[in-house]
Fold this sequence. Notes:
Strand order of the largest sheet: 1-4-3-2-28
Organism: Herbidospora galbida
Number of strands: 28
Protein name: WD40 repeat domain-containing protein
Structural class: mainly beta
Keywords: Signal
CATH class: Mainly Beta
InterPro entries: 6-blade_b-propeller_TolB-like
Signal peptide: 1-23
Amino acid sequence: MQKRAYAAAVLTALAVVSPVAVAEASTGAASSPARYVWLKACAKADYSVPCGKWMIYRRDGSSTSLPDAQVHQVTASGGVDRESSLQPALSGDGRRVAYFTTAKKLVVRDLVTGKVHPVRGAAAKPPKGLLINDLDTMLSYDGKRLAIDYVQGTLPSKVVDVASGSYYTLPADTSLQGFSGDGSKVMVTATSDQNTTIFSSYDADGEVSSQEVPQVVDGNYPLALADDGRSIAVFIEGRQAALRVYDLASDSVGPPVKLTMPKGERANKLAWQSSDRLLLWTYRNNANGDVIGGGLRTIDVDTGELKKIDSWTLRSGLWIWWLPGE
């Protein structure tokens, strides 16, 4: 399975922007939720490599480190590859982060209290023959559930309850798109024998609903599964951005609701906040198309009204960065 199959491509490029003033801290706890997690780039000869510690950039403008987080990928011989990095996963609310520690343990840290929750049971370690590099993770909006994907695509992914360590699995031939707002269900996509796209939802009891989707839905991103396991919000890009809701159970598509996107911004991630409201994370681009920042807004599902919650400017000199829910 490949969880970030629909994700935006601009992730590792170095952003050319003015630095922002932040307060650096070395503790893992602070009251403000995360805007994004980032890793610095350092020059090496005529190219850049990842360096420093993983950092959390918060809504209050401060940055706090993940002091126990593994930065670099590992090698089969037990060493590290200092020209590559692992990738933590932030919960959608920005209050939890999943990562491997320097002891190669998979944990979920509460960014408000600083408490670290080790992932327990069979999901805690890579399957035989795989390295920690071969695992990709995604947290639910509240960070209480963790999806673990094995990037070779030959093993079923696990959806883990962080508190108990219990889990259920997803078919290996599907791509995870995200959790429902309450984390009780997940949405996956797959390709049929006729090369059409299949949307499916799952929970701990198995498949909830599945359909080959119409062309008006296929190929659009971002997507968001509602708590009912059947309503999927679909962001439609184009000259006139729009939102449609696809019913996975009845195979029906609601009318387009027009959206007025802020100039220079593009959609990155959707999540249901309530039955009539969505959260939308965006990237902000300059005239050259470089990512220079982003924002968080609500969308009224019925009217398309957007309301700003937060906006931020991307730091300069980054190796990589990830938004909440990615």
